[in-house]
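Exercise 3.2. Students should predict the tertiary structure of the chain below and write it as structure tokens, then compare their answer with the key that follows.

Predict this chain's 3D structure.
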Amino acid sequence: MEYSPPPLFKQGASARAKMIFFAVIALVLLVVDSRMRTLAVVRQTVGTVLYPLEAVAMMPRDAIYAVGGYFSSLSELKQENEKLRTQQTLDARALQQGQQLQAENTQLRNLLGASQQLPVKSILAEILYDTRDAFTRKIVLDRGSKHGVMLGQPVIDHAGVVGQVTRVFPFTSEVTLLTDKDQTIPVQVVRSGLRSVTYGRGQSNMLDLRFMPSSADIQKGDVLVTSGIDGVYPAGLAVAKVVQVDTKSADAFARILCEPIAGVNRNRQLLILLTDSELPRRPPAEEKDKGGKSSFLKHAASRPGSTKSAESVEPVPSPSSDIPAAVER
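Answer key:
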């Protein structure tokens, strides 16, 4: 009985013979391809047929690369987003600072133009802070007595009157706004020339034109300017604009509300007018001594050119002393 190995272990030609055979075929193909260029079509056909198999074989590698690229791009996007947010914050701050500087530049230009048109000298001041009293309307400026600021000097902006200096320190000063409940300003209506006085209304940022009869020639939209009769505010400075006129009130006076023209709550730079607000003092009244002689007679008698003394000056008889003499006669 003959023994034959299983088909898996059956061997045909030897390995050396196979190697030689396939080496010869490879050399022939190389020579034919280099000489005749006839294997290009075969190569393209084989590449086309094997492309799906190649794509399937490359899918695990592409999936790994895709997952790694996804997480890498996500991290880069987060970092880029943080950088963009930081840059946006810086740009927003720079934009706000630029807008603030532009507004301050415009305000300073307006104040410069206003100061050149004023007949009195003025200095530029900046608001430091508001006072802590909630029932008043006052601000503190960075100019004081060392800079020539005095009590009673008006404070304006490019549009009109803002207030008046009420307290002065060496390097700062306190300004009471025209909307304060204790602040009054003599004004004049530009259209009709009518004179009156405005009163502040406190926190409402409005002004009252009080004690005006219902028949007064005042209309909505009239502009009020300083009249200058108080000796504090120069004449012609814009104060307020009439926004409401109520002539049907219960009393005999009209109810008139005005809105300040100046930027009371907007501007940071203001002008202090260096005016001398001290009014001339009233002359002293004539004083009488114990004997009833006036100080004028004593002064006249004591002059160097006078020949009579104070005792030799005869007093003027009063009417009451003449009546008994007439009766006796």
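Discussion points: Confidence is low (pLDDT under 50) at residues 292-329. The longest helix spans residues 40-117.
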